[in-house]
Design goal:
Number of strands: 0
Order of helices and strands: HHHHHHHH
Largest sheet: none
Oligomer: single chain
Number of domains: 1
Radius of gyration: 24 Å
Length: about 180
């Protein structure tokens, strides 16, 4: 069975202590907290601060995990704070980072991501007339980020192969024929 905990571990940095901390929350607290957060989101879907703050009151739930819970509830409007989506959404802001950009998992960073994803949604709707869900943008970012990671690994392996293999002999010089002389 896939849970939001196991899904979160497949993105970003795996932190084994989180599962233990999350397990310390009572079922009643989890139900009450998520119900409150979802209600807050429904009352004002343009502002994720309240529901995110509510969800992060649970032990072991930071902004990234809270955003995953919120995105499971509303995949069209609430983006998941994944590494790939954050880097993709902030690509123009990255002077040197690109896919290696450092990420601060704070509410300030999530709010920036939230605004950028909603701006992308508005731009795409304006240009194409089609609505696009936040989860669809995250899927594109995930694919692009993982493709870039694969390319880096492939390049690193190629470089390692070059250093491990003996140098190639220099090319032989071809003797000139009588006609060429």
């Amino acid at each position: 069975m896939v849970t939001w905990q196991s899904t979160r571990r497949k993105h970003g940095t795996y932190r084994p202590k989180l599962a233990q901390l999350i397990a310390e929350n009572s079922i009643e607290d989890i139900r009450a907290t998520t119900k409150e957060a979802f209600s807050q989101y429904e009352s004002d879907p343009t502002n994720a601060n309240k529901p995110m703050s509510t969800l992060t009151k649970l032990r072991g739930v930071g902004p990234a995990t809270a955003s995953l819970i919120l995105s499971c509830y509303h995949p069209a409007g609430a983006p998941f704070f994944s590494d790939e989506l954050y880097r993709y959404a902030h690509w123009q802001d990255a002077k040197n980072g690109g896919w290696d950009r450092k990420i601060s998992y704070t509410m300030k960073s999530y709010n920036s991501l939230y605004e950028k994803v909603h701006a992308m949604q508005e731009r795409i709707k304006h240009e194409s007339g089609n609505d696009i869900r936040a989860i669809d943008i995250e899927k594109v970012a995930y694919y692009l980020g993982k493709s870039a990671e694969d390319d880096r690994l492939r390049h690193d392996n190629d470089e390692a192969d070059k250093t491990l293999s003996p140098p190639s002999p220099p090319p032989r010089k071809r003797r000139k024929t009588q006609e060429e002389k």
